[in-house]
Amino acid sequence: QVQLVESGGGLVQAGGSLRLSCAASGRIFSNNVMGWYRQAPGKRRELVAIITSGGSTNYADSVKGRFTISRDNAKNTVYLQMSSLKPEDTAVYYCKHQDMGTMMSYWGQGTQVTVSS
Q: What integer pLDDT is reported at residue 71 of this predicted model?
């Protein structure tokens, strides 16, 4: 089992910045992918960004150039630096950890990000 604890959400004005953190604990193996997803009211959960344990990244087109995902493998923590935030970025942001050996996935509880116009 892997437990994920997210932090860093909140209310920010359009154009502002926030940094989300997600700390993983439990049975963690070195070959994994961590990422951020978001779900706005009435919409499906969507990928925001993912990062492999080797540091390869992938972003949704809607956040490219504005968001940066990074990780600290020693701390089993993934970060999402969000800049130039827009009202359409408003959503609950979820952290995901996937073990590439077992293919088991784990989700955090979510953190609310609200961007006011």
A: 96
